[in-house]
Fold this sequence. Notes:
By secondary structure, the chain is α+β, with helices and mostly antiparallel strands. Helices cover 52% and strands 17% of the residues. The chain is built from 4 helices and 2 strands, in the order H-H-H-H-E-E. It has a two-stranded antiparallel ribbon. It is globular.
Amino acid sequence: MYNRNDQDTIFPVKLSLIKEHGYKLAILxxxxxxxxxxxxxxxxxxxxxxxxxxxxxxxxxxGLRLLEDKKLISRDxxxxxxxxxxxxxxxxxxx
Length: 95
């Protein structure tokens, strides 16, 4: 599980994201990092993230997919009623 205090590994991850994909993906990762609760996950909607970052929901979905493809986050989505709930966790990053 992600260790919030491990800044020695997280900062290079953000620099790598900026270099490969620009600032927006690194900022999305940082927002997710700030939302993680004591249980190690967060559950923001794409709508919430798009408002927070002043971008479209499709851009958020693309960013989340890229972070997931890079194994930086994991998403666990479960249907509830007419909608769904999603837990996002930051994966442990090797040094």
